[in-house]
Amino acid sequence: MFSPRLVLAATLLVLPWSAAVHASASYPAKPIRMIVPFPAGGATDILSRELARQLSDQLKQQVVVDNKPGAGGMLGAAEAARATPDGYTILLTTSSTHTIGPYLNPKTPYKPQADFTPVAHIADSASVIVVAPSLPVKSIKDLIDFAKKQPGKLNYGSSGNGTIVHLGSELFKASTGTDLTHIPYRGTALIIPDMVGGQIHLLVDNIASAKPHIRDGRVKALAVTSAQRSPLMPELPTVAETVPGFESVTWFGIFGPKNLPAAVVSRLNHDLNTVLRSTSFQERLRTLGYDGTGGSPEDFVKLMERDAAKWSKLIKDRGITLE
Fold first, then answer.
1. b/e sequence 293-321, b meaning 16+ C-beta within 10 Å
2. Sorting pLDDT into bands at 50, 70 and 90, what band is 186?
3. Residue 41: what pLDDT?
4. CB of 185 closer than 8 Å to CB of 158
5. Strand partners, 11
6. Continuous H helices in the chain
7. Of 82, 118, 86, nearest to 21 (Cα)?
8. Is the pLDDT score of 286 beyond 50?
9. CA–CA distance, 284 with 212 (Å, rounded to integer)
10. Strands 202-206 and 154-158, bridge-based pairing
11. 83 three-state secondary structure
12. SS3 breakdown of the chain: % helix, strand, coil, rounded to 5?
């Protein structure tokens, strides 16, 4: 016969587990806060608000966007990491806070792998390699050949040190053995006039922001940086068709704090994938220049591991810093 003390101890152990199961089964019972670690009005914010609206309909509970910008997204990400792991605080962020930033900034206030629970991969944003109209090239092969004939003579612009525009360009250099000179700006829009004037020869720009300039003939598009051809510009080849294995995209995903209950992760992942399959959400993503993705949390983890390995190696090998 069990002693009363043992029975009491066993009961105390079971109670928290039972409460967690009950909480997960009734989830969500109140509004959910979606932290977005970037300013209101930007592309990530626009994506988050459309996602929150449709996810609210799916969950039958309001999802409220809470912008927490600062330190390249690290402040908002850190706040999400410290939140109670009950599913009522989630984070919509990008590869910049989880597979790039921590390798550029040793003072990152969280550990991407240890301090979060991956929930779902939402979307990818590929870039397009564009060149100045005066550059006598029509393909990636032409560009590589032309650059190798005059090492260090071609300039590429970026939106600043450590940005995906900078890293994507350095990845191109490393993958092709070309020598291009980096000229940082405070935004890609400032680069276009200098490309028209011939001072900047190459830019790895977001598809959505580059499209109007391509259409107007201010720059020439050569290839997209995704692994597969993009439905946003299906007429363009990928860089990988010339440089096997090349890929440079920004991903967007949903996280919870570490130790998020499995039942909550499952519910969120299921409903997020339902939203991602909807025609209206896919159409909205395309207007923002994103490719919808989805999949399981395990798929998302594998993506992040590959991405972290690629960017951390590039940052170390090329000596890239934020300065």
1. bbbbbeebeebbeebbebbeebbeeeebe
2. confident
3. 85
4. yes
5. none
6. 4-25, 43-59, 74-82, 95, 101-104, 140-149, 164-176, 192-197, 207-215, 262-277, 279-288, 297-318
7. 86
8. yes
9. 18
10. parallel
11. coil
12. 45, 20, 35
Residues 6+ positions from 139 with CB-CB distance below 8 Å: 222, 223, 237, 242
pTM of the model: 0.87
Give the contacts of 21 (CB within 8 A, at least 6 positions apart). Answer: 263
Q: What 3-state class would DSSP assign to 121?
A: strand
Neighbours of 213 (CB within 10 A): 21
Q: How far is CA 170 from CA 178, 192, 282, in A?
A: 10, 19, 31
Express each pLDDT in 228-267 by its tens digit: 999 889 999 999 999 999 999 999 999 999 999 999 999 9
Secondary structure of residue 113 in the 3-state scheme:
coil
β-bridge pairing 89-94 and 32-36: parallel
Cα first-last separation, the chain? 70
What is the identity of the amino acid at 276?
A: L
